[in-house]
């Protein structure tokens, strides 16, 4: 049936889909409007296959029932839905690709908190398995601003809990195992025998933190059943609708129990965590934290030790604010290295066009051409495969890497939820300084170039401008300012600072100490204390 509706003004997708508070999504017509807007932008929707799944957060099941009814009324041919409505983001990407689906709808607000007062999100992925490009999300937004009606079937709720194939108004609804296809894919990339041997060594303990989010069932099957990790070493493995009240973000602040275990006398050899929807990862060794930027560089440098990448890499890519550690590896291996704006979607064209094999972001995302999303458990298995071959501790591996390539000291300072007008003032001030910055000397460092980053996609020639303010120094140091595109209230300002160090006697210094002079320059450039009204950043990683 056709139901009348009126537009909502705020349905513009951000860095990663439409993210709002659950209460907003629960408002009558809010979700249907957005879903119909997506459908209206898909000329091939009739008879097509779509994959649907979410990270299991509060409102997941209700949203899926609405999507089922709307898909049936919009004459979709088939829906593939994860059992209990659950699919990790990389698993959705894989199912889209392996079933030649038209696309998929992912229900997640990633690492944002969940529950009745938390966040919810909807993201559309295209037939390559990756987040839809900006041209598509812009078109969806446009439709949402003029929407007058939507199509929805009047059906009983579909049983999501049992694997089954049923029919609804001519549309096939298949409830599939959430884990098995993805687990098989992992087994086809990595040397599970070697990893199993490593895990059975008495001196090798590991701890994986699923953060009460979607990777619990995946970790239990892959790390537990297939690789022999004991159940007590997979912590917070039961997915909860509110993630146990926590923030399902794998970083030093939010994976507290894991971090306590890893920084102690009894620390396991390897620790890792993934986020709400399973696409992020954090890697730790005994008393050692690996930054996401270093992790990407180390995976690139050692990729040929892994069966899935034994023939080498086509190229690599990183988002602009990610440290340049991987650039050094690319240079040494004569690989092309691309610099894209923040947001996984920008890697899609490079992967599809075969220009890159590996890519990653400072925001705890790493991935490859096996799917078109970043992939948390994949990164964990990649590390385990390397450790199994090298028989080295995480910290020795990292130190050897720095000795070979040098160390990119790196930090990110976040000013969260500041008033939009204050954030605008900061960026206006920075913009005003760009033109006459080149050549200027600050604390002994000379600015080589200052700009507002724009990306020219080498594959489809699209241009994405206004992607962050950069101050690039002659010695390779960088200071970058960006506004987050994933927040749901106010503005979050991110400051990224990087300094390259080639002197091995300076590889074990305190990061904040090493970067102090650059942080002072950043303060001078952006007047952060005065303009944000904050003495210091809310989160420092
Ligand atoms: C999501 C996206 C990433 C992005 C990250 C941070 O996880 O998938 O591609 O790097 O958000 O985005 P933000 O705009 O908040 O810095
Ligand atoms: Zn995520």
TrEMBL record:
Positions of the Alpha-D-phosphohexomutase alpha/beta/alpha domain: 11-150, 181-284, 293-405
Family label: Belongs to the phosphohexose mutase family.
Alphabetical GO biological process terms: glucose metabolic process
EC number, UniProt record: 5.4.2.2
Record bears the keyword Metal-binding: yes
The protein's name: phosphoglucomutase (alpha-D-glucose-1,6-bisphosphate-dependent)
GO cellular component, one term: cytosol
Coiled coil: none
Residues spanning the membrane: none
Keyword Metal-binding: yes
Cofactors: Mg(2+)
Catalytic activity: alpha-D-glucose 1-phosphate = alpha-D-glucose 6-phosphate
GO molecular function: magnesium ion binding; phosphoglucomutase activity
EC primary class: isomerase
One Pfam family it belongs to: PGM_PMM_I
Keyword set, alphabetical order: Carbohydrate metabolism, Glucose metabolism, Isomerase, Magnesium, Metal-binding, Phosphoprotein
């Amino acid at each position: 049936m056709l139901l009348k509706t009126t537009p909502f003004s705020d349905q513009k997708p951000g860095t990663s889909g439409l993210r709002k508070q659950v209460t907003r999504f629960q408002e009558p017509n809010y979700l249907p409007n957005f879903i119909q807007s997506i459908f209206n932008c898909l000329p091939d929707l009739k008879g097509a296959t779509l994959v649907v799944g979410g990270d299991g957060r509060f409102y997941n099941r209700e949203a899926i029932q609405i999507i089922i009814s709307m898909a049936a009324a919009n004459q979709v041919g088939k829906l593939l839905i994860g059992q209990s409505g659950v699919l990790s983001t990389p698993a959705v990407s894989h199912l889209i690709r392996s079933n030649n689906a038209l696309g998929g709808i992912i229900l997640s607000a990633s690492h944002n908190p969940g529950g009745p007062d938390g966040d919810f999100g909807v993201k559309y992925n295209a037939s390559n398995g990756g987040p839809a490009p900006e041209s598509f999300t812009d078109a969806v937004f446009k439709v949402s601003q003029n929407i007058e009606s939507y199509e929805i079937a009047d059906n009983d709720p579909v049983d999501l809990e049992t694997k089954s194939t049923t029919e609804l108004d001519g549309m096939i609804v298949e409830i599939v195992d959430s884990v098995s296809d993805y687990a098989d894919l992992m087994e086809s990339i990595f040397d599970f025998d070697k990893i199993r041997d490593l895990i059975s060594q008495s001196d090798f303990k590991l701890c994986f933190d699923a953060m009460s989010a979607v990777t619990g069932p995946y970790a239990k099957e892959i790390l537990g059943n297939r690789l022999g990790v004991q159940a007590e070493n997979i912590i917070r493995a039961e997915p909860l609708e509110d993630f146990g009240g926590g923030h399902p973000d794998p970083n030093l602040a939010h994976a507290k129990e894991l971090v306590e275990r890893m920084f102690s006398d009894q620390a396991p050899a390897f620790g890792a965590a993934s986020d709400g929807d399973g696409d992020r990862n954090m890697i730790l060794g005994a008393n050692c934290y690996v930054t996401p930027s270093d992790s990407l560089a180390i995976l690139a440098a050692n990729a040929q030790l892994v069966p899935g990448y034994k023939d080498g890499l086509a190229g690599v890519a990183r988002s602009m604010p990610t440290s340049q550690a991987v650039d050094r590896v690319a240079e040494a291996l004569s690989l092309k290295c691309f610099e894209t704006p923040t947001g996984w979607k920008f890697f899609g064209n490079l992967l599809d066009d075969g220009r890159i094999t590996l890519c990653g972001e400072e925001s705890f995302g790493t991935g490859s051409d096996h799917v078109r999303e970043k992939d948390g458990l994949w990164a964990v298995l990649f590390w385990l495969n390397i450790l199994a071959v090298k028989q080295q501790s995480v910290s020795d591996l990292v130190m050897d890497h720095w000795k070979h390539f040098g160390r990119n000291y790196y930090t990110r300072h976040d000013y969260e939820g500041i008033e939009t007008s204050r954030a605008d003032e900061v960026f206006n001030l920075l913009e005003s300084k760009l033109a006459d910055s080149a050549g200027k000397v600050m604390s002994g460092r000379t600015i080589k170039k200052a700009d507002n980053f724009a990306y020219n996609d080498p594959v489809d020639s699209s241009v994405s401008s206004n992607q962050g303010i950069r101050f690039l120094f002659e010695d390779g140091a960088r200071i970058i300012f960006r506004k987050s595109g994933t927040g749901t209230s106010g503005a979050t300002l991110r400051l990224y600072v990087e300094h390259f160090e080639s002197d091995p006697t300076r590889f074990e210094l305190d990061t904040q100490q090493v970067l102090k002079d650059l942080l002072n320059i950043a303060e001078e450039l952006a007047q952060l204390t005065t303009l944000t009204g904050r003495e210091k950043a809310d989160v420092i990683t």
